[in-house]
Amino acid sequence: MKKTVIAIVLAAGMFASCKKVLDIEDINSYKPEQVWNDENLANAYIANIYTVFGNWSPSEDRFSEQVIGIALPKDLILTNNGNFKLWDYGRIRLINQAIIDVQKGNLRQAAKESITAQALFLRAYIYFRMVMYHGGVPYLKVPQDRFTDDLYIPRNSTAECFDLIIKDIDDAIALLPEYNTPTSADYGKIDDMFALAFKAKVLLYKASPQFHSSNPWNNTDWAAAYTANKKAYDDLKAKGFKLVDDYANITIVERGPETVFPVINQYPSKVTNWDNGVRPGSESRGPASAVPTWEFIKAFPMKDGKLYNDPTSAYHKTEAVFQQSYWENRDPRFNKAIVWNGKNYPVSGKTNKRLYTMLGIADPLDDFGTNPAAAVNSSNMDRYSGFFILKNSLLRLTGAQVLQYDVDFVLMRFAEVMLNYAETANETGRINEAMDILKAIRQRAGIEPGVDGNYGIVATTREQMREAILNERNIELCFEGHRFWDLRRLRMLSKLNNTTKYGLEAITIEANGTDMDLRKAAGLAAANSLTESNFRYVLQQVPRTGVKVNTVPDTYYFFPLHRDWIDRNPKLVQNKDWGGTFVPTLD
């Protein structure tokens, strides 16, 4: 690497301090000795590695019950395919090179420390993701020969990897700035607040059942996880982090007090695909790639914080009644996260617009159903559900502008920090601390407190509180890519195994309950005069064709190493559930 040209892909606009790099004619022509003697180039080098944090992804929750699609068919994961394989040693090599070479350059000492701190954190972040996938991996801390990425060393144990990850984070914290405020030029760079919150998350994973199959809830790692998560919660709260007042604004109003770490987007230099992936096709550039399931619609509580089928709820309904009035008296987050048939939907600035999904009256890019009276087939029966995602949508964009979506991606927010803390508090016998956190989240949501002030939460045992926290994560963090990983971390993939998914077809009815003439319905829909109650609703399985059942075996708690990696390095040993002898747990 020292003798050849470095290829640096600059993430334009990521850091204000990198703006001068844009004046360079060909950044790819610069050699390492130039990079580490030029602060702008050094920052650009690190900015390139920040791409590991990802960006908005509409289909991130396709592996859970939140989003339509059977994304986990039988034998999805094998040792000889690329599904759920993570072996990010290309970035690790770049990071290790930076940690060594930055010390040889002529940068200011403060710049050297900044580069080193970010690199250490990024190394820990990448190794943590690989350990999440596979258990222990080779923990390289020096760059390898640039001519090959083959690994000729064995895997570190999972325990060793966790220790090294925590050390890298601690070493980074010693050098990072305490807090890059929203008005700072360095906003969007790693700081102590994010590092503390992430360290707490790492220790939560370490304590969790995924890594303690034989002693999931009483292992000694829960104590360390609690200490770290309480510190993260307390320190961030002291710095002014808090829940924003309106759940609808958690990301749309950027640089808010709930954002712990953002990935900065800015049109036209950096945009992403959220709105194009979640909107109805008629208001986008094509069909939505992710839509909510009926199963997830039912998971939202009612206004009093209890499920619709809970007999103690003030809003209790039978299954049949709920299916025909599911939008009534729901947790206010439901209204801010979901779009349904007949709902007012001011997309593209159309203040009087309602969304319709009924076959025969809706736009063909929006419809869902099999109503024979329509005399037409919907082309959306394998991908739609009759619902769309509203959460984080930038409604002011027109259909032609959806690819201009540039809302900052919130990788971590304070609500997650709170829920992580609540979980560790509960598992260490502090159920009241956990309850206080859930009550605060539900209070922000707008749920009714009830006469007991518990916002519908009924949890007097550790087991009940564990389930309450998991359910709250499912709703509060929906469509943010947490659900599948939460279930996997808690060894609860059985909640997904052998499951199917459904949508809800809408068919217009008259006041007496008979089906409405389609021509009349079309006229009323054109005037946005039909509301939710002008329809009856019919369950439809999705997808209608092909594989219809998720298959999620226990072997998915740790994914296998790719066979090619082992073939290239005989010192690597496969995980025990995939034909090898390596034990990825901490048991």
Textual characterization of the structure:
The protein is mainly alpha-helical and 587 residues long. It is 33% helix and 5% strand. A two-stranded antiparallel sheet has the order 1-4. The chain has a two-stranded antiparallel sheet with strand order 2-3. Strands 5-6 form a two-stranded antiparallel sheet. Helix 12 packs antiparallel against helix 14 (462-476) and helix 13 (431-445) runs parallel beside helix 14 (462-476).
Concise summary:
This protein has 587 residues and is mainly alpha-helical. The protein has helices at 32-35, 39-49, 89-101, 109-134, 158-173, 192-207, 221-238, 274-278, 294-299, 319-323, 332-337, 414-427, 431-445, 462-476, 483-489, 518-526, 563-568; strands at 259-263, 338-340, 387-389, 409-413, 502-508, 535-541.
Give a topology summary.
Elements: H1 32-35, H2 39-49, H3 89-101, H4 109-134, H5 158-173, H6 192-207, H7 221-238, E1 259-263, H8 274-278, H9 294-299, H10 319-323, H11 332-337, E2 338-340, E3 387-389, E4 409-413, H12 414-427, H13 431-445, H14 462-476, H15 483-489, E5 502-508, H16 518-526, E6 535-541, H17 563-568
Antiparallel strand pairs: 1-4, 2-3, 5-6
Beta strand %:
5-15%
Q: Helix tally?
A: 17
Largest sheet: 2 strands, antiparallel
The string of secondary-structure elements, in order, is HHHHHHHEHHHHEEEHHHHEHEH
Number of β-strand runs: 6
Q: What is the molecular shape?
A: globular
Q: Specify the structural class.
A: mainly alpha
Q: What is the percent of helical residues?
A: 25-40%
Measure the end-to-end span. 40 Å
The low-confidence runs, each spanning 5 or more residues with pLDDT under 50, are 1-30
Q: How much is the radius of gyration in Å? A: 25 Å
Average pLDDT taken over every residue: 93
The strands making up the biggest β-sheet line up spatially as 1-4
